[in-house]
Amino acid sequence: MAKHLKILVITSEIGGFSKSGGLADAVGALSQQLVRMGHDLRVLTPAYACVNQQHIASTAAQSLKVPLDTGEILCRVLESSLEEVHQGHQLKVPIYLLEHEHYFFRKELYGELGEEYPDNAQRFGFLSKAALQLAQELNWIPDIFHAHDWHTALVPYFLMKKRQTDSQFQKSRSILTIHNAGYQGRYPGYLNSWLHIEDTHFHADCFEDHGGLNLLKGGMLSADRVNTVSPGYAEELKTHLGGHGLHPFYQRLEDDFTGILNGCDYHQWNPETDPHIPANYSSSDLSGKALCKQALLEQVKLPNQPQTPLIGMVSRLTGQKGFSFLIPALEEILKEDLQFVLLGDGEPGIAGALEKISKSGANNFSFQLGYDNRLAHLIEAGSDLYLMPSLYEPCGLNQIYSLRYGTLPIVRAVGGLKDTVEDYDQKTGKGTGFVFQEPSSEDLTRCVRRALKNFHGQPKSFSQMVSSAMKKRFQWEEAGKEYLKLYRRALSSEAANNPRT
Q1: Which of 127, 185, 263, 501 could form an SS bridge with 205, CB 3.0 to 4.6 Å?
Q2: What gap in Å lies between CA 30 and CA 484, rounded to an integer?
Q3: pLDDT tens, 258-292?
C-alpha cells in the first residue's frame, strides 16, 4: 500500500471560513477528499475578520516568528477544522488560521470599493513564509506544500530556498495550482527585498516583469510541479492568446505543467435533494423542474410562460465573463421568443448597463443585482438553458451544476467549459449543451438561436439532451486521484534548487 502523505495546503480562502469565489469551494472540497483517502492534510489560511469566532477551537502556536523585511513578524496561529461524516465516520480537516490584526482584520479579503489593498504583496508574502515556519513550530514537516494561486505562489520559492539550508525539508516538494492565471500578483519591484526574494532571482526569467514583481510567474518557475484546473485551460495558457502574457513560461514548464479538472460537490448541487428549491426532481420525473421554473419567474417578476424557454445566468460582473460582447448581443437576443434572468454582482459599469437594459421596457429580461445563494440554486433548477459566454474560464462550476439540474449550458469553447460540455450534433442528436467559438456578439447570438431552435422545433431531441446532461458526473474522487499522482511524481523527482531559467 502506498504511504499516506503529509500535505500542507496554503490558501487565501477556504469554504466554511472565508470566500470570495470558486477558489474557496475548490480548495475545501479537494482537501476533504484527500482526508477521506486517508492522508494527513492540514490547511493554513488567514484569520480574517469575517471568520466566525465560534470556529476557533484552540491555539496551535501562541507566538510564531516569521522572518520578513529586516526582522521578524510575530503572530498567533489558531486552530479549527472542517468536519463531515463520511461512511459513518467523523472526518476532520485541521484548519490553521494565521492571526495578524494589521494584515488580516479588515472588512474584505483582498480590497474595498473596487481597489485591492496596496499591501497585498506583504500580506500574502507573510502567509506564504508563515507556512514553513509553522511546519517547524509544529515539528510536522509536510511531504507536499500545496499552494493555490498568486497569493501563495511564494511558498514554492521559500521552500526551494529552505531546502538549501535545512535538512528537515530536503524531501519536501511543492505544488502550485493556478485557479485563475489572469490574476498574477503584480507589485512594485522594490518589494523583492521586503519579501526576501534574492536579487539573483529578480530578472526577466523569474520574478521580474517589466520592472515590477510578478509573484505568480516567479512562483511557478520555482515550484516542483504546477497545474491548473482543467486540461483545456492548461493548453490555452501555453498560447499567445490564452497565456495572459506568460505563455513562454508555461511552455518552459513542459511536462511539469498539467491540467486536472475540478470536481463538483454534488451534496450541495443535486436537484433530488436540494433544500433551496421549492420542488425536487430527477431525470426520471421532471415535474418538479416545472414548478421551480414557475417559482423563479414569480420571484424575478417575469410573466409565467411555461412554454417559453428561460435562459439563466449567475455570474460575477467582470470582463472575464464575456460581458463585453454579451451586452451588445442582448438587443438581438431579447427579440427572440425567450425569457432571461441574470443574477450577479461586480463592476459598476457592467451592472449599470444591465440595469439600463432591464429598465428599457423589455418584459422578458430580469437583472438581479447582488448574490443570493438560494436564488442561484433556483436559477439552476428553474431555467431551461444556462449561459456562460466567458472570454476564458479555467474550469467553471456553473456549467457542471447546470448539467446536473437538466439546464442545458450555452458556453464558449474555452478552458473547462469545452472539457465538460458536449456540443449538440444535429446529425446524431447527441450532446449536453450548445457551444460557440468566437468571443463576439454575432457568434453568441447564433448559438443562442441554435439552442432556441432545438427547444422549439425538436422537443424530443431537447429532452434526450436533458437526460444525457443529468447523467454526467465530475467527481472530486477522480480529481483527488489525479492530485495524488501529481504529488507522487513530484516526490519521485529531484528537487529544483533554482527557478527554471
Answers
A1: 501
A2: 11
A3: 999 999 989 889 999 999 999 999 999 999 999 99
Give the whole-angstrom CA distance, residue 126 versus residue 120: 10
Stretches in the chain below the pLDDT threshold 50: 1
How far is residue 64 CA from its own chain's centroid?
30
Using only C-alpha atoms, the chain has a radius of gyration, in whole angstroms, of: 23
Grid-cell match 484548519, residue found: 95
pTM for this entry: 0.92
Strands, E assignment, 34-116: 40-46, 58-68, 71-86, 89-99, 111-112, 115-116
368-378 tens-digit pLDDT: 999 899 999 99
Task: For 316-346, give the DSSP string.
Answer: EESGGGTHHHHHHHHHHHTTSS-EEEEEEEE
CA distance 326 to 331: 9
Q: Which residues of 456-494 are buried (b: 16+ CB within 10 A; e: fewer)?
A: eeeeebbeebbebbbeeebebeebbeebbebbbbbbeee
Residue-wise pLDDT tens digits, 62-121 = 999 999 999 999 999 999 999 887 777 788 999 999 999 999 999 999 999 878 999 999
Contact call for residues 59 and 78 (beta carbons, < 8 A):
yes
Alpha-carbon gap, residue 179 to 11, rounded angstroms: 11
CB 32 within 8 A of CB 4: no
**Domain chopping of the chain, boundaries:** 6-263+477-491, 287-472
Tell me if 6-263+477-491 shares its fold with 287-472. Answer: yes
CATH class of 287-472: alpha beta
Residue tagged 475548490 (cell numbers): 26
H helix count then E strand count, the chain: 17, 20
